[in-house]
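Bench log, entry 3. Co-assembly request; chain sequences pasted below exactly as received.
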Amino acid sequence: MVETGHFALVLAFALSLVQTLVPLIGARTGNQRLMAVGGPVTVTGFALTALSFAALAGAYASSDFSVASVWENSHSLQPLIYKITGTWGNHEGSMLLWVLILTFFGALVAVFGSNLPATLRANVLAVQGAIGATFFLFILATSNPFIRLNPAPIEGRDLNPVLQDLGLAIHPPLLYLGYVGFSICFSFSVAALIEGRIDASWARWVRPWTLVAWMFLTGGIAMGSYWAYYELGWGGFWFWDPVENASFMPWLAGTALLHSAIVMEKRSALKIWTLLLAILTFSLSLLGTFLVRSGVLTSVHAFATDPTRGIFILCILTLFIGGSLALFALRASRLTAGGLFHPISREGALVLNNLFLTTATATVLVGTLYPLAVEALSAGKISVGAPFFNLTFGPLMVPLLILVPFGPLLAWKRGDLYAVAQRLMAAFAAALVAMLVTGLFVNGASVFAALGVGLACWLVCGALTDLAVKSGFGNVSPAIMLRRFAGLPRSVFGTALAHLGLGLTTLGIVGTLCFGTEKILSMHAGESVELSGHTLRFEGLYPAQGPNYSEDRGRFSLIGADGGIAAEITSAKRFFPVRQTTTTESGIETIGFSQLYLSLGDQGTDGSVVVRLWWKPLVTLIWGGGLVMMAGAAMSLFDRRLRVGAPSRRRKQPAAMPSAGVP
Amino acid sequence: MLFWVIAAILTLGASLAVLLPLTGGGKGASSSSDHDLEVYRDQLAELDRDASRGLIQPAEAEEARAEIARRILRLGNTSQADAAGTRQPSRAARLVATSAVLVVPLLSWGLYSQVGSPDLPSQPLAERLAKNPADSSVDELVARAEAHLAANPSDGRGWDVLAPIYLRLQRFSDAVTAYRNAIRLDGDTAAREAGLGEAIANAAGGIVSADAQSAFEQALRLDPANPKASFYLAMALAQEGRLAEATAAWQKMLGLLPQDSPWRGAVQQALADAANRSAASGEPATGPDAAAVDAASSMAPQDRQAMIDTMVAGLDEKLRQNPRDTEGWMRLIRSYVVLGKADAARDALHRGIAVFGADSEEAKKFTALAASLGLTATE
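Structure output for the full assembly:
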């Protein structure tokens, strides 16, 4: 079975070469048959990659230590779920997951792309094939997960204990769905550049892909942040760590792309800019992969460092980013510009959004790469951390967030800023009240905290105002309003939800940063401690035995208002003997949207133990907002507008009926 | 054999995926202008919906309609150009098609023959452990025993059997655990205690620590003739620099050991080493003892070094925190000398003397030890 997977991988590589060259030549020469090869080859390539991945996952699940990658990253005592997730908890397996998702997206285009112009479809599949081919080659040449050991060792070296968590089952697949999803936008852009023209259906096709990729990337980042929060035991949710930035940059650029694609789709404007953004977004995804996989950065993500891998990825990076940008420089002038608009209009607002987001992306890029450049040039190490980003990224985000509620309310082509401002009065008043209440009645609230709460409230109310205005609130009777509300396009709900989610995330960040409290103390069993009105009693340390670790569990009781035990919280120190590693399992009790977070430190000689306690108000909203944003993207995806019909000459066009819909 | 059948079927399927579209009649695909027209119609309809919802002002909507209409008009021109551009399949296209069909089997079989291991079957762990023990390797047998003990951790006999095997496989820390479990569950015997001591000493790279010494002493209480315990206790003396006493102990052992005892060789070797060291005193000794070096040499050198370094560094750290530990200082100085780190040993000597004062009894002890190890207080 293992060798079948290995063979399938090699076969998939051969097919990806066919997928790259044959449809491309077909599109150049106008040969229908050559172009038609793209579809079946892409689907078969995906099936083979899936078979290969299944074989590797099977080897992990059955602890087949004759596979080197399994031996290095698995152990027979691990629970089955971690054996399976361990498949991508290492460099080789995660790269296989990467191409699996890449071929999956290619197959989706092949299956659902029958309503695309034939040459565009052929070119898209060819570019997708080219990305696939380079990564297959990368895997086979430098990171082959199917290298065998003979004789096979009897026991493996265990998965990195930090990764033995449910987060590994969710975070990497989501993140890769996001990263790799943008490859489709990239392929569409390069295909348009190869053809030298942008079809009208281009934007209609790119927007849903952007939405899908953005949705998964949002989920992946949120999940990664929550995982780091509870697993690392530092109580932080974002560290401006280069690895985090590597995923955040494509997100920022992808958000810009999402918005500019709307303009392009609706108004056929901003074509060239959208094209460039699509290229940049995927380039940043590739850069992220390079930074994380090459070992340039040391982190839990850099499973193994090997200079040949780094150089190989650098070549891939140069090939795709350099190639696509060169193509862009050659062809962009041939593309026709689209519709016109007044600066104060929906289009104008979206352009402004793009300016802010791309500047923010550039800021993060500088903050991430500058230390690496300094280290490479002068061998000195500098660290660019939170202070840099607070000073640069923060001031860019605040005006953008203030402007967010205006965008959806402005009319297309030419908007009336004054009228929009009037409609937002209620939201503004709500934000003001929230600000005053926070400033005056909450203990220890700084001016920044009050402003932050106001901003979050402004975003949430602004999103709700959008829905209210569009369903005719105040102008029509409640019954009609309800009917209109139900009849609103899904994309309107999508926009409102996404902006609402942004507001919730802002509220969570402000709440945690401005009102959070923490304590570090040494506790004996039976002692109590109070933190922000919550009383915790330390019940003692109890040893326990897991399947492949031993742990000291610290049990804590949350004392309720009546003096009884309201909840039990457990935090543990786990020792994994195979890797001789200790991990901290934090104890978290969610109260409303807030969390009480504690983690165990070292044990003292006198039986006491160091305990770190945090009270994190509204912290769950940070990730909850991310989920709401995902829901918004999903809502938008189901908008019927995105389903472009294939041309059919027989169909009569009724003048008043919408023409979208699958025939 | 099965693998080759599967590989052939996969190759066939992949080749068909290339071949079938090439041989099938190229369906008259719609031109891109048809697609564009469809989109523009859709945009017009959407514009009407936006206008009725008030998302765009009537005047702007009219202007947008005109924009879309202009695009539809422009479409008429390009579609004629498109029709003229479609060519008949050429010979070049047939060449591309043929090479595409050929490249799939050739490349995949060629590449796989380079990177694959077709003869190696899958080896799921459960299957390997379930097969006849007679066919199993030592590692597999140990794994099976481990699985049994993981399920029945109170099987003292199991630990007792496994412990010496661990020792032979040089999994010393596992051996320590196994001996401790065996002693805890089935009581102590001279063999178990001596084995425990040997495991502890080897885990520390051959240095007979206090823990190991107490285990050997316990073994001798249970069986005064236990050769392993006597040998290692003498080794401890040698490591402390008390070469004369060590030599005496080993010579006494030689007298007591039967002629066919396997220990005779080890003892004679140790005596020879001790003789060399006292002859060349001043030269720092490089290794603790032949047996341990031999044992540890099959570990990866960096592993062994790392293990020893960690242990010594731990002791050093402990002494920085609790410096009034005479035994500890002596052990540290000895360890550094054994490791060949003369500077570190000298530093430890000075620090130890500083703790107790230069005139103290302890300081004299340290200086004597250093001298016996061939270490001078200054360069």
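Residues 81-87, 282-293 of chain B have pLDDT under 50 and may be disordered. The first helix of chain B runs from residue 2 to 23.
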